[in-house]
Every structure is written in C-alpha cells, then in structure tokens.
UniProtKB/TrEMBL annotation:
The lineage of its organism: Bacteria, Bacillati, Actinomycetota, Actinomycetes, Kitasatosporales. Residues 156-221 form the HTH luxR-type domain. It comes from Streptomyces huasconensis. Pfam families: GerE (PF00196), Response_reg (PF00072). This is Response regulator transcription factor. Residues 6-124 form the Response regulatory domain. The modification 4-aspartylphosphate is found at D57. Coiled coil: none annotated. Keywords: DNA-binding, Phosphoprotein, Transcription, Transcription regulation. PROSITE patterns: HTH_LUXR_1, HTH_LUXR_2, RESPONSE_REGULATORY.
Length: 232
C-alpha cells in the first residue's frame, strides 16, 4: 500500500473514540478520514470516505459491529476496507461473529499505543494475521459449536471441493498463522505464487479476509482445534 493508511474510527464511547483518533492522528503514515459513534453512521461514513482500515467497536447499541462489518464489506467497492475489531475481552463471541463476517482481526481496547499502531499497519498490509496465536485461540473456542447443526444461524461454511490440493495446503497453513513468506518457504514456492493461491481460494469461497479463511478452515474441519501448531 502506498501513501498513508486511511482509517475510520468507530466507537460509541466518546472518550475512547477521541483517544483513538488523537493517537492515530499523531502517528506518521496514518490519516483519520472519519469517526462514527454507531454502526449506522459507520456504514454511511465508510461508503463516503473509502478508508483502508476501519477500527470497529464490536458492542454498540443499535447496529452492532458485526452487522456494520457485514454491510460495509458487502457494499464496498474494490479494494474493500479491512476491519479491525475493538473488544474489551479476547474470548468474545461477538468478535468471532465479526471474523466470520469478514473482519481482518481484533484488538483489545486496553492495548498500548504501539500495539494499536502495529495492528493498523499489519491489517492495512493484509499479508499476515495480526496476533495469529490469539486469533487461533478465539476461533478454536467457538468454531466447534458454530459448526454443529443448529449451533449458529449464520450461513454454513463453504464447500472446499472447489479448491485444488495446493490451495487446500495453503489454506491449512494460513489457519496455523503462517505469513505468506513462511508459506512460500514451507512449500518451496514464491510469495507471489502463495498470493495467487490465496486470492483464488478467497474468490472461490467468497471470503473477505485472511481471518475469515482461518474461521472456514476450522469450521469445515480442515484444521482441528489443538492440532494446528506444529512447526509454525
């Protein structure tokens, strides 16, 4: 991504929102293009300002962060913004719902400034999960129950039959938290080839983010909880 990262900040609590905006505006390479106090305003501002990254509060009265994330990604022109969800505790079922809906990652509200800026940069780049071990722990905690019949009313996970064997291999490694560079080294292919496989996989499965691919890998049983950490 060239130039500054354009960020939209969404939080229903004014002091938290103001603090985030102030921190981001003081950071080099980041431009705050708007701030919203609820999900409906976030959807409207995202369409108007076309941010690269949306910092999205997950629990808000009215339209929550899950619904706002789904709507923003469904309505966005390419390239769609990457949504970074803000939460007060890490094993949050709302956050899991947002990752299923296409959010690119999540961040605890009590994280320090350096971690926030690192998360915005990582999500803006899009080539790796931010905090992959934490993301995997969250997905593992909820994937089993969501995949059970009647366990969740959201659409069932996609069929992996459309993928080639190499695309399945790449998807498994993404679910283990590996970066494109890690996957390229593991499979003896170039990073460009990894990106091609990933882009084709996401297109075939109608996925919006790398984190969503992790959710799919667990929900379909491609990767099982507790079995994905070897070597990565």
């Amino acid at each position: 991504m060239t130039g500054s990262i354009k960020v939209l900040v969404v939080d229903d609590q004014f002091l938290i929102r103001a603090g985030l905006v102030g921190l981001l505006r003081a950071a080099p390479g980041i431009e705050v293009v708007g701030e919203a106090g609820d999900g409906d305003e976030a959807v409207e501002l995202a369409a108007r300002t076309r941010p690269d990254v949306v910092l999205m509060d997950i629990r808000m009265p009215g339209t929550n962060g899950i619904t706002a994330t789904e709507t923003i990604l469904a309505q966005a022109a390419d390239p769609a913004p990457r949504v970074l969800v803000l939460t007060t505790f890490d094993l949050d079922e709302y956050v899991y719902g947002a990752l299923r809906a296409g959010a690119s990652g999540f961040l605890l509200k009590d994280s320090g400034p350096e971690r926030l800026l690192a998360a915005v940069a990582a999500v803006g780049a899009g080539d790796a999960l931010f905090a992959p071990s934490v993301t995997r722990r969250l997905v593992e905690a909820f994937a089993r129950q969501a995949a059970e019949p009647g366990g969740d009313e959201v659409r069932p996970p996609p069929d992996l039959a459309a993928l080639t064997s190499r695309e399945v291999e790449v998807l498994k490694l993404i679910a283990r938290g590996l970066t494109n560079a890690d996957i390229a080294e593991r499979l003896y292919i170039s990073e460009a080839t990894v990106k091609t496989h990933l882009n084709r996989t996401m297109s075939k499965l109608d996925l919006d983010s790398r984190a969503q691919a992790v959710v799919v890998a667990y929900e379909t049983g491609l990767v099982t909880p507790g079995a994905g950490g070897t070597g990565g």
